[in-house]
From TrEMBL, chain A:
GO biological process, one term: electron transport chain
Domain Fumarate reductase/succinate dehydrogenase flavoprotein-like C-terminal: start-end pairs: 451-577
Primary enzyme class: oxidoreductase
Species classification: Bacteria, Bacillati, Actinomycetota, Actinomycetes, Propionibacteriales
Topology class, membrane: Peripheral membrane protein
Organism: Kribbella caucasensis
Assigned GO CC terms: plasma membrane
Protein name: Fumarate reductase flavoprotein subunit
TrEMBL record, chain B:
Sorted UniProt keywords: Cell membrane, Membrane, Transmembrane, Transmembrane helix
Protein's name according to its UniProt entry: Fumarate reductase subunit C
One Pfam family it belongs to: Fumarate_red_C
Keyword match Hydrolase: no
InterPro entries the record matches: Fumarate_red_C (IPR003510), SQR/QFR_C/D (IPR034804)
Keyword Cell membrane in record: yes
Automatic annotation (TrEMBL), chain C:
Name this polypeptide is given: Fumarate reductase iron-sulfur subunit
Domain 4Fe-4S ferredoxin-type intervals: 140-169
Single GO MF annotation: metal ion binding
EC number, as in UniProt: 1.3.5.1
Length: 579, 126, 247
């Protein structure tokens, strides 16, 4: 099996990349290899919207500045400039492909406010934006008959020889068949790794596969210490209540019914939403404010942890049904409450990975022929904190860029005759997987136990606030879990849809990703964006205005180094919200 | 890999009220056809003269013919009612840019039915 | 309320079983626990060999459709307490080949979907530079309902016609075709007509209506199909009366 381009993952970035390849060079054969059917991908869960300058009073520079300041100056400004420039075009392309964007009365695209954005520039399809975006992409991709899909195939390894990627090894879940799929280029679009934590908005499939695959293939991971906590998740389930709820005018109240954000340098409590202020502040600051409220005893204790309230009652049923119907549906189904008349209990929840596979502005990793895009990748436009509604357009802009770059590379250097060493590696991997199944058959540790301990470790070690002590403990614990992983048990010996084997492989990927998060967080002795250290509470531009890059050594341990941030037009400054 | 294909149970249509209704409605077309045949026989009898007509009427009075016709009537009613129930879903009518509510379309169907029945009754009974 | 509930789960391991067998598990009965949480509890703590699909656990990815006490349901949006004191019977979706345990083969749908061309078709695509195709909120409302399909397959599982005539294109695929037919930006209705108006298309449907009852997203595929029947019938009559005006 050979394809010029193999895309791992069929979500927003993966589908966009595959279409870009097909458009750039129709002679190329492009395959999407995904562990789920593309329309099950986690892009489907995105709710609030996608940012792209559209209004007359807005400008690309303002979108760029909001993104740069939102990132606490850790993004690369050349990447941000490319991103804000191409985002509106990508969103329009989606419109031309049929995406049901919400509209103004005259038929033009409607935009809404969003956290950390100075102007209204977030395109939305009610509050099911990711769902509509994904299905539009998936259905459009169906019209490209050259795009081959390997649905429900699980990639276990990226094949690399002499610093260049030549394909993947994957398991067909339905049959257990292990195949080497060779390729001229590989694009990793597998999304984030929220399942490394116990309480997350992320779907069950978000296990950092692509990050670990690329890491093991020799590509460095970048800025892994920056984990975004979204301020409003439903307790117990962790289901996301979109930021659009606050953008439409929702308030965050502590146990006294007080809009506590005004105590945290986020502005004054105005009855109507004010851009870049209060509830429309950035996610890192809002989640940190929650922790302070909790420490002051001003949150409400529940069986599922402390909560505050999101108050939407003053918005009225009409607005909620028009702009936030999914929020109402989710609250009613999973919390038994109606936000029209009741307060919504919420607490911060792991939502997004700012870090990921290190790529340049074209999605290329340092490994030749290996590309990455979407949440898996770190270009970086998100730096230390991503702004809400920047991630969907990121999938499109950089999915497209990676697809184009990969198509050019495959067109220029592609060759179906891959080195012999690659085929040997493929056979080795097949043998390893078969042996794994046998070896773990005698294991005694439950996969779920190791996974749960890893998740608790991550929450305790690298939560919203961290310090050296807690992180060193986490690092030790993760080392222990890596050892225990070797004894993890597989009771399922079937070749057919062996989800226990998948869970084992996912856990192995997650442990690697978890270790990289802790290692990078330990090294960064400052507080910036989503990385807040109680032992180093200030930002330190002299030492850390730089990306952390963690590279896997031959012994499996990661080594961290730093890469300067690219600054074009916005020198580092203070992040100001609400004043 | 050998997937399992669940055989369809013979009594699958008893599993749900809607399935039963579906099978009954499919069956109702037989009785619609019966009424057509019956009507043709009637017309044939009329064209053959008063004697043939009287014979037809007499035969229609047999208890089993009456029974068949009562059952047929019930099935045809079922057919009509479910058909009308479907109409508002099939017909999206717009008046002055606004969608006519499904209930109104349903009501219009029943009104038309009533009207046609009344006209028929008037023609026969006057 | 008892603190545990029994789940009777259909098991089918093609290497071992010739047909599904039920296996009982006791799981905690807790408020807020979906049926899916019960299944995950089994997988994590009682029996790692139980196989099922799930992902978003918020009713939008469409992975976790199963038959719960005889009804097609998204197990992430169906709650244990609603079935207390139990037991709850959990089986794979009906009308699909069972691959393993609660996992069914939906390749048939995946193959049929592209045949109705569920993408925006234009005679000429305007350049991106010219901006968006205008569409008023009313025009959006025309097709919005049909765009809500999450491909969860509950409608196929509920449809007796699909069970009896596997060639039927089916509720979701037809609803998605209608989603584009009714989109003011689309010009591809005639390209979809051949497949939709074929015997395997709308005319297979006898309006049982269970697809719409089963749909967790309020798509109403039955409505979409009946509506297209009228469209197709009207078109046939027009073509018959005015053969020359047809295209």
């Amino acid at each position: 099996m050979f394809h010029d381009v193999v895309v791992i993952g069929g979500g927003g970035a993966g589908l966009r990349a595959a279409i870009a390849v097909a458009e750039t060079n129709p002679r190329l054969s492009v395959a999407i290899v995904s562990k789920v059917y593309p329309m099950r991908s986690h892009t489907v869960s995105a709710e609030g919207g996608a940012a792209g300058v559209a209004a007359e009073d807005d400008s690309l520079d303002e979108h760029a500045y909001d993104t740069v300041s939102g990132s606490d100056w850790l993004c690369d400004q050349d990447a941000v400039e490319a991103f804000v420039h191409e985002a509106p075009r990508e969103l329009l392309r989606l419109e031309h492909w049929g995406c049901p964007w919400s509209r103004q009365p005259d038929g033009r695209i409607a935009v809404r406010a969003f956290g950390g954005m100075k102007k209204k520039r977030t395109w939305f399809a009610a509050d099911r934006t990711g769902f509509h975006l994904l299905h539009t992409l998936f259905q459009t991709a169906l019209s490209y008959t050259d795009i081959v899909r390997y649905d429900e195939w699980y990639v276990t390894k990226i094949l690399v020889d002499d610093g260049r990627a030549y394909g993947v090894v994957a398991i067909e879940l339905a049959t257990g068949r292990i195949e080497t799929i060779t390729a001229s280029t590989v694009i990793v679009c597998t999304g984030g790794c929220g399942r490394v934590y116990p309480f997350t908005t992320n779907a069950n499939i978000k296990t950092g596969d692509g990050m670990a695959l690329a890491y093991r293939a020799g590509a460095p991971l970048k800025d892994m210490e920056f984990v975004q906590y979204h301020p409003t998740g439903l307790p117990f389930t962790g289901i996301l209540i979109t930021e659009a709820a606050r953008a439409e005018g929702g308030w965050l109240l502590n146990k006294d019914g007080y809009r506590y954000l005004q105590d945290y340098d986020l502005g004054t409590a105005s009855p109507t939403p004010v851009m870049r202020s209060m509830e429309l502040g950035p996610r890192d600051r809002l989640s940190q404010a929650f922790v302070h409220e909790m420490e002051k005893g001003r949150t409400i204790d529940t069986p599922y942890g402390p909560i505050v309230h999101l108050d939407l009652r003053h918005l009225g049923a009409k607005l909620i049904d028009a702009k936030l119907p999914f929020v109402r549906e989710l609250c009613s189904k999973y919390q038994n409450i109606d936000p029209v008349s009741e307060l919504v209990p919420v607490r911060p929840v792991v939502h997004y990975m700012m870090g990921g596979v290190h790529t340049d502005i074209h999605g290329a990793t340092p490994v030749q022929g290996l590309y990455a895009a979407g949440e898996t990748a770190c270009v970086s436009i998100n730096g230390a904190n991503r702004l809400g509604s920047n991630s969907l357009p990121e999938c499109l802009v950089f999915g497209n860029r990676a697809g184009r770059a990969a198509a050019v590379f495959a067109g220029r250097y592609g060759d179906a005759n891959v080195p012999r060493a690659i085929l040997a590696q493929g056979r080795d991997e097949q043998r390893r997987l078969e042996q794994d199944l046998g070896r773990h058959a005698n294991g005694r540790e439950r996969i779920a136990d190791i996974r749960t301990e890893m998740q608790t470790t991550m929450e305790n070690g690298t939560g919203i606030y961290r310090d050296r002590d807690s992180m060193e403990k986490a690092a030790d614990k993760l080392r222990e879990l890596q050892e225990r992983f070797a004894k993890a048990a597989i009771d399922d010996h079937s070749q057919t849809f062996n989800t226990e084997l998948v869970a084992l492989l996912e856990l192995s990927f997650m442990l690697d990703v978890a270790e990289s998060i802790v290692a990078c967080a330990l090294r960064r002795e400052e507080s910036r964006g989503a990385h807040q250290r109680t032992d180093f509470p200030d930002r330190d531009d002299d030492r850390y205005l730089a990306h952390s890059l963690i590279q896997r050594g031959s012994d499996g341990t990661g080594r961290v180094r730093y890469l300067p941030v690219t600054i074009t037009r916005w020198p580092p400054g203070e992040r100001v919200y609400g004043r | 890999m050998t997937a399992y294909h669940r055989p369809i149970p013979i009594l699958w249509w008893t599993e749900r009220w809607s399935y039963l209704l579906f099978v009954l409605r499919e069956l109702s077309s037989v009785f619609v056809a019966w009424f057509v045949v019956y009507l043709l026989l009637l017309i044939n009898a009329i064209s053959d003269g008063p004697a043939a007509y009287d014979e037809f009427v007499e035969r229609s009075g047999h208890w089993w013919v009456v029974a068949i016709n009562v059952i047929a009537l019930l099935f045809v009613l079922l057919h009509t009612v479910t058909w009308f129930g479907l109409a508002p879903k099939a017909m999206v009518v717009k008046l002055q840019g606004r969608r006519v509510p499904p209930r109104a379309i349903l009501a219009a169907h029943y009104a038309a039915w009533l009207l046609l029945s009344a006209i028929t009754a008037w023609v026969i009974l006057r | 309320m008892a603190d545990r509930i029994t789940l009777e789960v259909a098991r089918f391991r093609p290497e071992l079983d010739t047909e599904p067998v039920l296996q009982s598990y006791e799981v905690p009965l807790r408020e807020h626990w979906a049926v899916l949480d019960g299944l995950s509890y089994i997988k994590d703590h009682l029996d790692g060999t139980l196989s099922f699909r799930w992902s978003c656990r918020m009713g939008i990815c469409g992975s976790c459709g199963m038959t719960v006490n005889g009804d097609p349901q998204l197990t992430c949006a169906t709650f244990l307490t609603d079935y207390a004191p139990g037991p709850i019977r959990i089986e794979p979706l009906r009308n699909f080949p069972v691959v393993r345990d609660l996992i069914v083969d939906i390749d048939d749908f995946m193959a049929k979907l592209p045949t109705v061309k569920p993408w925006l078709i234009r005679d000429v695509h305007s350049p991106i530079e010219e901006g968006e195709y205008l569409q008023t909120p009313d025009e959006l409302d025309e097709y919005k309902q049909y765009s809500m399909c999450i491909n969860c397959m509950l409608c196929y599982s509920a449809c007796p016609v699909y069970a009896l005539e596997p060639t039927f294109i089916g509720p979701a695929a037809i609803a998605l075709a209608q989603r584009y037919n009714l989109d003011s930006r689309d010009e591809g209705a005639s390209e979809r007509a051949e497949v939709l108006a074929s015997p395997e298309g709308i005319w297979s449907c006898t309006f049982v209506g269970e697809c719409s009852a089963a749909c967790p997203k309020g798509v109403d595929p039955a409505g979409a199909i009946q509506r297209y029947k009228l469209t197709a019938a009207t078109k046939s009559i027009k073509d018959l009366l005015m053969p020359r005006s047809a295209r």
